[in-house]
TrEMBL record:
Protein name: 16S rRNA (Guanine966-N2)-methyltransferase
Tree of life domain: Bacteria
Pfam families assigned: Cons_hypoth95
Origin species: Kytococcus aerolatus
Lineage: Bacteria, Bacillati, Actinomycetota, Actinomycetes, Micrococcales
Molecular functions (GO terms): methyltransferase activity
Keyword Chloroplast: no
Keywords in alphabetical order: Methyltransferase, Transferase
InterPro entries the record matches: RNA_MeTrfase_RsmD, SAM-dependent_MTases_sf
SUPFAM superfamilies: S-adenosyl-L-methionine-dependent methyltransferases
Gene Ontology biological-process entries: rRNA methylation
């Protein structure tokens, strides 16, 4: 795998061993980040990469100008690979990078920002396909409770065979894109009426 563009563009990164991790393909990452750049949510953003795996999505965001990325993954092999990738890229210990070895829902419930300036402008969720729809709905509900800045975008990557995520109150889908077996669901905070 490689980082597509930005200050780290072209640099290679590793993927965690085993079948549990399913890294986002270069083609899907390139299309996703083109959309996100068009939406103007990357430069200076706080980004959450909630099912991090190798960290490729968050690394792509950082490479393209994100101010901070927080990666969450409970699996030791994934966290080891992410930390190796950060070291390879010269980012180990960088204040812009936060690595959290815990499940996404746990992180969201325990680390909720108290300062609105610390809210995320972009949340990237590429959960393993075995994650149930109910578990994904719980993570999205935790994310919608005080984590998202005005104008934020939430991206959920799932298999074409998976149903549309159950969006919690406060989030609404505004776009869907299909890339072969992969579907990207994009949502945003609902504006109060």
């Amino acid at each position: 795998m490689r980082i597509i563009a930005g200050e780290l563009g072209g640099r290679r990164i590793g993927a965690p061993p085993g079948a549990e991790t399913r890294p986002t393909s270069d083609r899907v990452r390139e299309a996703l980040f083109s959309m996100l750049e068009h939406e103007d949510v990357l430069v200076g953003a706080r980004v959450l990469d909630l099912f991090a795996g190798s960290g490729a999505l968050g690394l792509e965001a950082l490479s393209r100008g994100a101010a901070r990325v927080d990666w969450c993954d409970p699996a030791p092999p994934a966290v080891r690979t992410l930390e190796e990738n950060l070291a390879t890229l010269g980012l180990r210990g960088d204040a812009r990078c936060g690595v959290h070895r815990q499940a996404a829902r746990s992180f969201l419930e325990r680390q909720r920002p108290t300062d609105p300036a610390e809210r995320a402008l972009l949340a990237l969720l590429d959960p393993p396909y075995p994650l149930t729809e109910d578990e994904l709905a719980e993570v999205l509900a935790a994310l919608a409770e005080g984590w998202l800045a005005a104008g934020a975008i939430v991206v959920v990557e799932r298999s074409r065979r998976s149903p549309e995520p159950t969006w919690p109150e406060g989030l609404r889908r505004f776009r869907t894109k299909d890339y072969g077996e992969t579907v990207l669901w994009l949502a945003e905070p609902e504006l109060p009426e």
